[in-house]
Write a structure and sequence with these properties.
Layout (H helix, E strand, L loop, with lengths): L1 E4 L8 E5 L9 E5 L2 H17 L6 H4 L2 H11 L7 H14 L10 H12 L15 H21 L26 H12 L7 H11 L3 H5 L6 E2 L2 E4 L8 E4 L2 H7 L12 H11 L10 H12 L4 H8 L4 H4 L12 H5 L1 H6 L2
GO molecular function: DNA binding
Keywords: DNA integration, DNA recombination
Organism: Vibrio diazotrophicus
């Protein structure tokens, strides 16, 4: 199902394209002057199949791609990375042969997963690449979330076949953070950078607030007050305010409500990668990890850290809990060797 504006100069630019009995059935295309007319026609056409059962069972004839299209139309388009997510789902559906959604099985998914690991599944550009176990788990989570949402809508009939599939068990990755000497060196080099005067400012702000680079780079004067910054358009789609010191406030302050910085992600990524070559993947994100790590090592509260970082789930924040100075300190006092010493 699709409604789009062709923008071709036609007096009826809105195209409605739908498959009442599924992708394998007849396609209906019709143009309209307004989007409202196209939507009304789509609803009428899709309702026809419900009123005429001899034309086929709509629910049983819809393929996995049909269901993904439905999810995208009703929910997916609201996500932050809508197009990227939708394309990943299409690769998954096509990789499993786009079965009728009612015929999707756990076996189909696990075979697809094995083929992904072997590099036998092509992307939408026809390229075949091997993926990691972590990527397979992420794709599992994604497709499962789509099915769960469709069940909430009342569109996915029957069981969720992915609920029977166990994810790969992975070693927990160690989140790298900067040492004190590395922070000093990084800031000093950034302050002396001749081309980007905003470089040291945004590095200091991220280290002071735990902000993601994208959140910090998008800040405007309207989001800055004494002595606080308010991050909007966040990953979790919730605004959050974080206190800052007087020094940071004066460093980043600009008159007016316009952008505070003019610097791109790639500039910061390359700069940090060159100054701290031991970092493998998290060159820009390491500033956020560094804030969280030192916050806990300096005795910070895990619940407060969750709010500062804007994590929706406390499990994300708990990755830093082991850095707290009192984490599991009872192991020293209550291990069995102490019992031996008392006898």
């Amino acid at each position: 199902m699709s409604i789009r504006n062709l923008k071709d100069g036609n007096k009826k630019p809105w195209l409605c394209e739908c498959y009442p009995t599924g992708r394998g059935g007849k396609r209906i295309r019709k143009r309209f002057a307004t989007k409202g007319e196209a939507l009304a026609f789509e609803q009428f056409t899709m309702r026809e199949i419900d009123d005429k059962p001899w034309l086929g069972e709509k629910g049983e004839r819809r393929s996995l791609l049909d269901m993904i299209d439905l999810w995208q139309q009703r929910h997916g388009q609201s996500l932050a990375h809508s197009k990227y997510t939708y394309n990943k789902l299409r690769v998954m559906a096509l990789g499993m042969g786009d079965p009728l959604y009612t015929k999707l099985t756990a076996s189909m998914f696990t075979q697809f997963r094995a083929d992904r690991l072997a590099g036998e599944i092509a992307d939408l550009q026809g390229r075949k690449t091997k993926v990691t176990f972590r990527t397979c788990n992420n794709e599992h989570d994604l497709l499962n979330a789509v099915i769960v949402e469709l069940k909430r809508m009342g569109e996915w009939k029957g069981e969720n076949p992915l609920s029977a599939v166990r994810q790969f068990k992975l070693h927990e990755t160690e989140m790298e953070f900067l040492t004190v000497d590395e922070m000093r060196d990084l800031i000093a080099a950034a302050e002396e950078h001749e081309f980007h005067e905003d470089l040291h400012k945004i590095i200091k702000l991220c280290l002071a607030t735990g902000a993601r680079f994208k959140e910090a780079a998008a800040l405007t004067g309207a989001q800055l007050s004494k002595y606080k910054v308010t991050f909007t358009q966040t990953k979790g789609k919730k605004n959050r305010s974080v206190p800052i010191s007087r020094d940071i406030y004066e460093l980043i302050y600009k008159e007016g409500s316009g952008p505070l910085f003019s610097i791109g992600y790639s500039t910061v990524y390359r700069f940090i990668s060159r100054r701290v070559p031991r970092l493998t993947q998290q060159a820009a994100h390491v500033l956020r990890h560094t804030f969280a790590s030192y916050y806990m090592m300096n005795g910070g509260n895990i619940i407060a850290l969750q709010r500062i970082l804007g994590h929706a789930d406390i499990k994300q924040t708990m990755r830093y809990a082991h850095l707290a100075p009192d984490h599991l300190e009872d192991a020293v006092e209550k291990n069995p060797l102490n019992s031996l010493n008392k006898t």
